[in-house]
Design brief:
The chain has 246 residues and is of the alpha+beta class. It folds into two domains: 2-105, Roll (Ubiquitin-like (UB roll)); 108-238, Orthogonal Bundle (Fumarate Reductase Iron-sulfur Protein, Chain B, domain 2), CATH 1.10.1060.10. Helix content is 36%, strand content 14%. The protein has helices spanning 33-44, 78-81, 108-116, 136-146, 153-157, 159-164, 171-181, 189-196, 210-214, 221-238, and strands spanning 2-9, 19-26, 63-66, 69-72, 88-92, 99-101, 104-105. A five-stranded mixed β-sheet has the order 2-1-5-3-4. Strands 6-7 form a two-stranded antiparallel sheet. Strand 3 (63-66) and strand 4 form a beta hairpin. The protein is elongated. The protein starts with a strand and ends in an 8-residue tail after the last helix. Mean pLDDT is 94; it is low at 239-246.
Length: 246
Amino acid sequence: MKVTVAVKRFNPEKDDTPAFHEYEVDAAPTDRVLDVLMHIQRKIDPSLAFRKSCGHGVCGSDAMVINGRERLACKTLLKELTDKEGTKLIIEPLRTLPVQKDLMVDQTEFFQKYRRIKPFFINNEKAGPKERRQSPEQRKIIDAATSCILCSACYSACPVVQGENPLYLGPAAIVQASRFNNDSRDRGFELRLPELDDPDGIWPCNNYFNCTQVCPRNIKVTKIINLEKNKIKKFHGQGEGHANPE
């Protein structure tokens, strides 16, 4: 079928404002949006810029706004968007992050916030002769959070980041904090607490659920954020201990 692909393009080195460029493409319903973009770049307009890597929904590098919603281009089939001849697809870069060129955004701010929550294992207790053991039940608690691929889709879709409070830590960083705070082997909750328990930390989240709706890994992001809020409230109420579940 013939599809019109409208790509929002912008090169800050030479353009004053973004503008949509349209391309006519013959595509099959089972083609991915990534396939369409690669065809445009290889056969029609080699100047088109976008990111891709694994092409299988693991690296998260090709996150973009497709028909008004954050998606991975490599996981989105045309038939999920349309089954009509002559339909127009509208493809834009992720929101809130500076555009480097066309569909490529600068994720520096996103990863700066991510690094602030200390997304690594913290435990200064003396290790035993074997590895620190973890039961299947304990592992299950952090399974969802470990699925995050840091694609920035949730960050782009978040109304708080978009305007209510651009300094907000953001959904992905909080999910990563949760991944370690809930790890039965980790002892870093109190070290991460200052970044989370901050006016620009976890509290600006207003439960819009946009992050959950666009997550390509089906992580219940809003639920995880609320669980972390409850953990912090409980911690302050008790005034002692770390917040890892046993």
